[in-house]
Structures are given as structure tokens and as C-alpha cells.
Amino acid sequence: MFSYNVIGAGAIGGYYGGRLAQAGREVHFLARSDAQYMKEHGLKVDSVKGNFELPNISVYERPEQLPRTDVVLISLKTTANKHLKEMLSPIVKPGT
Questions:
Q1: Is the torsion defined by CA of 28, 29, 35, 37 positive or negative?
Q2: What pLDDT, in 10s, does the model give residues 36-76?
Q3: Which residues contact 95 (CB under 8 A, 6 or more apart)?
Q4: H or E element at residue 22
Q5: Rounded Cα–Cα distance for residues 23 and 84 (Å)
């Protein structure tokens, strides 16, 4: 089974990463400014497809803290694209 890193845990990353975690997948979130809040309160998603909460999620503040995973879901604002190469370097592995 694949493991996932979600870079950017806002509306898009939170939703899709949350759905993956809800389905039992191994998901790790990078949520720099909101990481501490998410560690304490988990992830809450309000959606027209159904609301859900994940009280215990794996969340990190810095890319180098994330484990290397099979799939990386990138959901950054475009203004952060210039940092993408340095963010991906420590978390990809052969075959990612």
C-alpha cells in the first residue's frame, strides 16, 4: 500500500489528504504555520460530500521532518512554487 505526503494542508490538501487518511492510508501532512494546531486538534473537514474529523494525524512543520513516501500530493499556493524543489528533495525516494 502506498504512503503519502501532503505538502500544504489547506482546503485542497486537507480534503484529499484527509480522505486518504480516512480510507486507512498512511498520510503525512506538511502544514508549516498550522502544524501545532493540527497536532493538538486534528483535522476537521466540512464538505458537501460529508463532513469528517481525524483527531490524530501525522503533521510536520518542516519538509525534512517528513518521511520519504511513495506519493507526494502538492497543494501549495502558487506563490510558494519557488520553494518546491528544496521541499521535495528530502522526501522523495526512487519511484516516488
A1: negative
A2: 999 999 999 999 999 999 999 999 999 999 999 999 999 98
A3: 70
A4: helix 11-22
A5: 27
